[in-house]
Design goal:
The protein is an alpha/beta fold. It has eight helices and ten strands. The protein has a single domain, classed as Copper homeostasis (CutC) domain (TIM Barrel). An eight-stranded parallel β-barrel has the order 1-2-3-4-5-6-7-8, surrounded by six helices. Strands 9-10 form a two-stranded antiparallel sheet. The longest helix is centred in the middle third of the chain and has 16 residues.
Length: 238
């Protein structure tokens, strides 16, 4: 069983490595589903963390929140981000794109993969928003993805158990089906048992700060919690 931590910054990554996660997806702004981390974050981790720990990290490439339909300028931005990630020595990237019809945007995906030639590629939960996820999965395998993050086309992986199980049955011997979306210590065992997946993805965050400032701006933020990570690891890899 491989446990990927969805980490929203340096402290979450540190907690993941210490707590026993097998790897991580690095992003920022989990409250909007995650976006590409800053250059400073990527540069610091790329130059120092790998040398110490060899902890495998893939970087989310998503230039904005919202839908997965990107124009040419947005694709160009994400290709540049991918080149930067590659230059900093990361294992891989997490990408996805759909077209206006709700199908995979294969030309855009190919451009991003070409920008990161030599990296490993995860396809993110855009798979859950596309029109025909079964056909899409075949396409992703043919394109060279080694991992797909999915909640089974539902808001959470627990609700999407049936589809995740179907993905695993149909494609699990050709690509890593990684269940993610609302997974925690209380439901992961049930999800693993019901689907047969060998990859799970969770953020396991807890509040670090709360409240608002005198302008009404929200000051709260969350970090992946070390004790929750340890407990989760004990469950998935006893």
């Amino acid at each position: 069983m491989r446990f990927e931590l969805c980490a929203n910054g340096y402290q979450s990554i540190m907690n993941g490595a210490e707590g026993g996660a097998d790897c991580a997806e690095l992003c920022e702004a989990l409250e909007v589903g995650g976006v590409t981390p800053s250059y400073g974050t990527l540069s610091c981790w790329g130059k120092t963390f790998f040398a110490r720990t060899k902890f495998p990290i893939r970087v989310l490439i998503r230039c904005r929140p919202g839908n997965y339909i990107y124009n040419d300028d947005e694709i160009a931005v994400m290709c540049e981000d991918i080149k930067m990630v590659k230059s900093l020595g990361y294992e891989g990237v997490v990408i996805g794109a759909l077209n206006q019809k709700g199908d995979l945007d294969v030309p855009a995906i190919k451009k991003m993969m070409a920008a990161g030639e030599g990296l490993k590629f995860t396809f993110h939960r855009a798979i859950d928003a596309c029109n025909n996820p079964i056909d899409a999965m075949e396409t992703l395998i043919n394109l060279g993805f080694d991992k797909v993050l999915t909640s089974g086309c539902k808001p959470t992986a627990y609700e999407g158990i049936d589809m995740i199980r179907e993905f695993q049955t149909l494609f699990g011997d050709r690509i890593n089906i990684m269940a993610g979306g609302g997974i925690n210590e209380n439901n992961v065992e049930r999800i693993i048992t019901a689907t047969g997946v060998t990859n799970v993805h969770a953020s396991l965050t807890s509040p670090v700060a709360e409240g608002v400032d005198n302008t009404g701006a929200i000051m709260a933020y969350k970090v992946s919690n070390l004790e929750r990570i340890k407990k989760f690891k004990d469950i998935v890899s006893p």
